[in-house]
């Protein structure tokens, strides 16, 4: 399913080259045409048996990360976040810096050197730095440049009862599912869009949707999963192991209710585990796709991921397979219907 390979590639928003090249290489025999637009979106076209419908699948290639903004006299690197990251999780995390993937560690003032008020507060990003093992600013500048991208370093690991720990599950899970979907042939023209810069404003999807001009779009994502200690059950967004999650509404989009209900009912008929996302936080590429041109019938289906936007996101392979199977079931069923759903 290529998930291990995809998550171990680095693709911070604006620097998705590694991910794009991997996907292109592995789908070149599956698509009838592959285009890369000026934004960097990869659009794979698969010709259908009829032209009665144009369907867009979308998953974003980029991940949250960091960018080099400066250097300290002692050789440390100052940095900014790219995308939404909880600063509290950062101290002590391993990273890879720049194209050379120089290993580093996010550090901060040691606790035994902190004043009382510092110990009682979370470390702010501006007080953190990245240590790559150099002692002087000049040494670091020979290895690293301003504007270099920085990614979490976190190898793919399987553990527990069918669980996976990795960075960038948001949204390499979606990319992996689109790659699987391309292995099938459908009744209609299919455009599998691997988009860029979702984490910094849904930018790539806006351009891709305008280019494709689809009748229907299905966004495949990794989404929040909050079934952890300290959270009331009534506040769970999704539950790990209970199947793919359908979005009812979030901060960027209001999916078409008929399309969402159709997907849910189809999953149930096929005995595929499925759930509804219970919260309306966050957003994804559906927000831009839905409003493209004169509007697009859109829905989002996601793999629940604990600890999202961190180097240790956790998903269940059961949920991944549920999402993959539902996406393919939808594509096959749409081709048999007189109306879209």
UniProtKB/TrEMBL annotation:
The active site is at residue 198. Zn(2+) 1 binds at residues 60, 170, 221. Keywords: Aminopeptidase, Hydrolase, Metal-binding, Protease. SUPFAM superfamilies: Aminopeptidase/glucanase lid domain (SSF101821), Zn-dependent exopeptidases (SSF53187). The keyword Hydrolase applies. Binds 2 divalent metal cations per subunit. Gene3D superfamilies: Peptidase M42, domain 2, Zn peptidases. This is Peptidase family protein. It comes from Acetivibrio clariflavus (strain DSM 19732 / NBRC 101661 / EBR45) (Clostridium clariflavum).
């Amino acid at each position: 399913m290529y998930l291990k390979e995809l998550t171990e590639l680095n693709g911070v928003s604006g620097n998705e080259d590694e991910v794009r090249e991997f996907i292109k290489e592995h789908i070149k025999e599956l698509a009838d045409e592959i285009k890369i637009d000026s934004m960097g979106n990869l659009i794979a076209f698969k010709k259908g048996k009829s032209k009665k419908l144009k369907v867009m699948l979308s998953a974003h290639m980029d991940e949250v990360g960091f960018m080099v903004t400066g250097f300290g006299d002692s050789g440390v690197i100052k940095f900014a976040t790219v995308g939404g990251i909880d600063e509290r999780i950062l101290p002590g995390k391993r990273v890879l810096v720049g194209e050379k993937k120089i290993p580093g560690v996010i550090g901060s003032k040691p606790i035994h050197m902190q004043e009382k008020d510092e110990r009682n507060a979370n470390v702010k990003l501006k007080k953190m730095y990245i240590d790559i093992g150099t002692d002087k600013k000049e040494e670091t500048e020979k290895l690293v440049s301003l504007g270099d991208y920085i990614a979490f370093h976190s190898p793919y690991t399987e553990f527990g009862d069918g669980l996976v720990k990795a960075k960038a599950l948001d949204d390499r899970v979606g990319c992996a599912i689109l790659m699987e979907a391309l292995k099938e042939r459908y009744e209609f023209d299919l455009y599998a869009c691997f988009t860029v810069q979702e984490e910094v404003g849904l930018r790539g999807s806006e351009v891709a949707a305008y280019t494709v001009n689809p009748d229907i779009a299905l966004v495949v994502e990794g989404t929040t999963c909050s079934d952890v200690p300290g959270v009331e059950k009534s506040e769970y967004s999704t539950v790990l192991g209970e199947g793919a999650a359908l979005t009812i509404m979030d901060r960027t989009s209001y999916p078409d209710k008929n399309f969402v209900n159709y997907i849910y009912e189809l999953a149930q008929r096929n005995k595929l585990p499925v759930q509804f996302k219970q919260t309306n936080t966050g957003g994804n590429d559906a927000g831009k796709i839905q409003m493209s041109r004169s509007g697009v019938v859109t829905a989002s289906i996601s793999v629940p991921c604990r600890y999202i936007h961190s180097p240790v996101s956790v998903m269940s392979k059961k949920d991944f397979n549920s999402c993959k199977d539902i996406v393919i079931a939808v594509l096959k069923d749409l081709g048999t219907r007189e109306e879209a759903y």
